[in-house]
Specification:
276 residues; two-stranded antiparallel sheet; mainly alpha; 2 strands
Length: 276
């Protein structure tokens, strides 16, 4: 679990790194919307989203394999979702045992969608520092201050949660190795035995998480942190031409996917009409 990408920051002097954090958050949200807009079994739309990710990675100067490592954190969820589609989908023609062609397509569709969303979210955290991410979230949620919503505190919680994802994963890996050195077995037995074997991992991890939270609270208190009260910013966020280009790029992606969906729907209806 070393070198976890999701939640970590990769410093570089690139076009994407210099963009405003607010624009990058909005672009990431729009990109995820684009992924969800892709029609069922229309993998050309996923190819467009993947091209957008590859182009953004190249411009950001982040190693592509570093971005791919973010998929490790959700590999179990991806496999579990694919298995559900393979063995619990009765539609279509049976290809092997109880697996149908529609189940295979659904599994591939789910895998592609989840991986593309994680890659996009990973790019956001890799190119945006935790401080910039917190400021960006706070800037976007600023209008909620009119209804007394604690915008600054919410942004701080979100940024700390993202920052501690790699730390907790490394801590889990360390605890698992320590338990294996003491003779613990996490690989044999049925699913219930494996779940029971994880209890000696979860308890130390929970205690370690509370300890880190307590240490962080003491560190913030010793620096006289008082939330958003009378707080100023060292760096002011300003939108630039880079942000406009990024917004136009993701807008073009969404328009392209919508066009592909309509073309795919028209082509499908034409095929059905020809068959009739």
């Amino acid at each position: 679990m070393k070198d976890v990408s999701f939640g970590s920051y990769f410093p570089a002097d690139s076009f994407v790194h210099k963009m405003d954090a607010r624009a990058k958050i909005l672009i990431a949200i729009a990109y995820m919307v684009a992924v969800f807009l892709v029609s069922a079994f229309h993998f050309l739309g996923f190819a467009a989203c993947l091209s957008f990710v590859i182009l953004t990675t190249a411009v950001s100067r982040v190693p592509f394999f570093r971005v791919l490592k973010s998929v490790r954190t959700i590999i179990f969820f991806v496999v579990f979702s694919a298995i559900l589609q393979l063995f619990f989908n009765s539609k279509g023609t049976v290809v092997f045992w109880v697996i149908t062609d529609v189940g295979l397509l659904n599994a591939a569709f789910i895998i592609a969608r989840i991986m593309l969303i994680v890659l996009g979210a990973s790019l956001l955290t890799l190119t945006t520092s935790p401080v910039e991410l917190a400021d960006g979230i706070e800037g976007l949620l600023y209008p909620l201050k009119w209804i007394k919503f604690p915008v600054h505190e919410f942004a701080l919680i979100m940024s700390i949660a993202l920052r501690f994802i790699p730390t907790l994963i490394d801590e889990t890996d360390r605890i698992i190795k320590a338990q294996k050195a003491r003779g613990a077995d996490f690989e044999s037995g049925n699913i219930f035995k494996r779940a029971k074997a994880l209890i000696p991992v979860l308890i130390p991890l929970l205690i370690s998480s509370f300890r880190r939270a307590d240490e962080l609270a003491d560190a913030m208190d010793s620096r006289c942190y008082a939330g958003s009260k009378n707080r100023t910013k060292y760096k002011k966020m300003r939108l630039s031409f880079r942000d406009l280009m990024g917004v136009l790029a993701v807008a073009g992606l969404i328009v392209g996917i919508v066009f592909l969906n309509k073309f795919y729907a028209i082509n499908t209806l034409a095929q059905i009409a020809g068959a009739l």
